Amino acid sequence: xxxxxxxxxxxxxxxxxxxxxxxxxxxxxxxxxxxxxxxxxxxxxxxxxxxxxxxxxxxxxxxxxxxxxxxxxxxxxxxxxxxxxxxxxxxxxxxxxxxxxxxxxxxxxxxxxxxxxxxxxxxxxxxxxxxxxxxxxxxxxxxxxxxxxxxxxxxxxxxxxxxxxxxxxxxxxxxxxxxxxxxxxxxxxxxxxxxxxxxxxxxxxxxxxxxxxxxxxxxxxxxxxxxxxxxxxxxxxxxxxxxxxxxxxxxxxxxxxxxxxxxxxxxxxxxxxxxxxxxxxxxxxxxxxxxxxxxxxxxxxxxxxxxxxxxxxxxxxxxxxxxxxxxxxxxxxxxxxxxxxxxxx
Length: 345
Description:
Blueprint: E1 4-8, H1 13-17, H2 20-27, E2 34-39, H3 41-49, E3 55-58, H4 66-78, E4 83-86, H5 91-99, E5 104-108, E6 119-121, H6 132-146, H7 164-172, E7 180-185, H8 197-210, E8 215-219, H9 226-238, E9 243-245, H10 252-259, E10 264-268, H11 271-278, E11 282-286, E12 307-310, H12 326-341
Parallel strand pairs: 1-2, 1-4, 2-3, 4-5, 5-6, 7-8, 7-10, 8-9, 10-11, 11-12
């Protein structure tokens, strides 16, 4: 009988998107387990759209009142999970799994929360020795081994597969076949160091000058970031680059389907960058040089030849995004766009 597994990744959107390769591993095993995820309300819609998830359970969060926490425990206990996989461990979730009497509970061996788990995997993520999504895949594979499930192969991008017709429709909304559709997301969601609006404008102008074919420029915005996006459109216009705001989407899933039509997304290390990575859209990410936030650690999970990353050079302050060589970045991005144009039907 296939096991019933609960996976927890209950923090930000970007973190949850980097869990999709691990979820794909679980659902690719034989016999195929039933996979539920425990996520906060703001990532629940993405979790429901994930092809590797059977059921979504909403986590009310650590600040929820006692009745809400009790309801969560009752719900988890009633589902009689065979295993708990916590990708980012906290004492509250460890205690939840223990009290729900889930027999196999696996998590990274970090902090005192590990006391609540039956299997602890040493990873030392703060050293940033491999991508975050690979750390998650390692945990998923460790769980499969302990459940005696077989994984014939590791799933490959795209981890968010869309029907070709849906992708083509999204692309037609952004650019004609002879052009490359480029989306810039200048916001950070308040969690990531990012380029300034002026830097994004100069970068785009330089890329436009280096590319021989036409580019369709779009600027996207998250909730509360509309003014920043409008400012970038104005700056681009002043530099002679025609750009438009990406039409407002009705939901984060609808926004993801818009991104699926892009040839390239340029952004900081934030949710939209990792959504694009799961869609296997080419990405150009701008990262700080902080050890726990390096381009390797927060690498997107698209194909390697669709992935560009830029950060301050050695010797610069790790948050000094002005130290990034934008001319060099523009050349790499232009080369990516030229290569991508040859893949259009």
